[in-house]
Specification:
This protein is an alpha/beta fold. 54% of the residues lie in helices and 9% in strands. The protein folds into two domains: 72 residues, Winged helix-like DNA-binding domain superfamily/Winged helix DNA-binding domain (Arc Repressor Mutant, subunit A, Orthogonal Bundle); 149 residues, Rossmann fold. α8 links the parallel β1 and β2. It is globular.
């Protein structure tokens, strides 16, 4: 349960609920919120608050998401190390096999975990924006630049807002009708407290793809597309995270293309 396990600053009661859910995942789909509250010696309000912290609308939404993930996991073989897919002793054939397994399993995990409504909303927001600004750093920036290049084929010319470390200046130029796409795997986004707040204040619609629902940027995003947090510290490279971003951005691009194709008919 990526969303719940990665939550920070939980109360003692919320931690008990998270631990119970993680150890009773198979029972949760048939459990009422009152039953869960009783089992955890807490209140319905505590559970609802926890669900919302995790990005769910409520307990029913959490159960629906859990059921979807459980079904998806039936087809996933958990034998891939997303953080260190190679140890250093493999030959070329073994490396090819390890990365092929990483890519195949990553796509299965992503396809079964993404919230379709968030992806659909993201495509609609980006498609209808008067101007599009993209915020990304490091390897994520390279992946985002590829997305910006594909958008040219749709006659959309996105601005890479982090190109010269002028995020705050760019944010101040945004307004209603504009959209900002933030691509960031973790919670560390350079000076995000400043420029994300400015985007929000200016009425710029914020779309974010991330594995961290607790960052300040994630809390202000609408929609927030959460990807499973499979890549940990000490990674060999950003194999999984950049594949995840590429997959999500390609799905968004395909939806944008289909929308524009329908309009042009």
């Amino acid at each position: 349960m990526t969303k719940l396990s990665d939550l920070k600053n939980l109360t003692a009661s919320e931690k008990i609920v998270v631990e119970y859910i993680q150890s009773h995942e198979n029972d949760l789909p048939d459990m009422t919120i009152s039953k869960l509250a009783s089992e955890c010696y807490t209140s319905n309000a505590t559970i609802i608050r926890l669900c919302r912290k995790a990005g769910y609308e409520g307990f029913a939404d959490l159960k629906k998401d859990l059921l979807r993930k459980t079904e998806a996991q039936k087809y996933v073989q958990r034998n891939v190390d997303f953080t260190n897919p190679v140890s250093g002793n493999e030959n070329v054939i073994e490396v090819m096999g390890s990365l092929a397994g990483l890519y195949k399993e990553s796509i299965d995990v992503l396809a079964g975990s993404l919230k379709a409504s968030a992806v659909q909303t993201a495509a609609e927001v980006l498609n209808s924006a008067e101007r599009l600004f993209i915020f990304a750093y490091g390897d994520s920036k390279v992946t985002a630049e590829g997305f910006a290049n594909r958008l040219i084929k749709l006659n959309i010319f996105a601005v890479m807002a982090t190109e010269r470390s002028e995020e705050l200046h760019v944010a101040r130029q945004t307004g209603k009708g504009d959209a900002a796409l933030i691509v960031s795997y973790g919670s560390s986004i350079r000076r995000s407290d400043e420029w994300v707040s400015v985007l929000k204040e200016n009425g710029c619609r914020i779309v974010m793809i991330s594995s961290d629902p607790e960052s300040e940027a994630a809390k202000m995003a609408d929609p927030l597309i959460l990807i499973p947090h499979e890549e940990k510290e000490g990674k060999v490279s950003t194999f999984y995270s950049q594949l995840a971003f590429t997959y999500v951005l390609n799905v968004i691009y395909a939806l944008m293309y289909l929308k524009r194709k329908k309009v042009s008919r």
